[in-house]
UniProtKB/TrEMBL annotation:
It comes from the Eukaryota. Keywords: Membrane, Transmembrane, Transmembrane helix. The keyword Membrane applies. Coiled coil: none annotated. This is G-protein coupled receptors family 1 profile domain-containing protein. The chain crosses the membrane at residues 20-38, 50-68, 80-105, 117-139, 176-198, 219-240. The keyword Hydrolase does not apply.
Amino acid sequence: MLNSLPSSAEASFSPARSPLLPARISLSVWFISYTILISDVWTCRWSLGLLLFYLNRYLPVLDLFLFLHRTACYRRSHNLSMFVLSVAFILVLANMLTMILAIIVLRTYAIWGRRRLILWILTPIAVILFGSMLGITAWKTSVDYHEMRSFTPASSMSDRQKCTIAALAIDKKRRIALLGLYVMVFLGEAAIVVLTIIKANQHISKISPRWVSQLYKNGIIYCICMLGLSLVNACVLFAAPVSNSPSYLPFATPVNDYQQSQYKPIVLPAQRSLHSMFSNRVILLIFQNRKRNAPENNEDNRPRPNTYAESAMDVFTSVYPEPIETGTDETSWQARAQMEWVH
């Protein structure tokens, strides 16, 4: 009985089951924040920014579902596996776009009052991060597809076995590519952390509402958590333990190379899910504060000055310019940025 404990523990922490906990947490957060979503978010005017908020809220759960389908579903055809692989590629890209560009970059740009210097800093970060994610995700999807197609019809493995092996396989080339991606994400998030701390020091040192200080503190904690997860993902690619048995697969397979990579992607589902939950929680807090500060004014009926230009960044803004404001658009955005937060 004692001898069976290591194998049982190994199976419990296998990558085929690693998305289960993030999926449960995501569903729990869904139900907990549902009343806030109805009262404070559904009343907002539709914009591109609000659409990105919804995508960032729901796409990670679909991504986790597709990952589970590829690794733990017991009955699937080869054509269905190909379809799931293609859909997963699209959803992962959309998820990356909303997390990196919409939540992180746009919020940082908003808090700094749309300064040109910050634009020059954030634009290369966004282009490099999204470009690398696009290239590596497309390459990984292509490799998985050809890996599944490479199995001969006479192979003793079922379609489910082929799909699961392709989903969990991380050989040397894939490991190096993923390491490069994690390093770039780590550096980009580190730059965001620096900009957050600088602006937090400027805002908190002055007289600021309590919720602004709390959001900055929570945001810095969020940034540190994301930095830690990126660093853990990079380390796990090389330091993850190697199993002597294929217990991470629900079947026996002679492919030893894939047995050695069983723990390599085990933290990735958690990172995707936590990215979405942390960033969306902060935006929900901003929506709550906006509703609390203007209980009798609906956003749709709120007057705006002539200098105000509607933008997708509205969803990342906690206060609107007052009707008495005059001056340039830059001044208006700087006034709004005094109550802004980066994530």
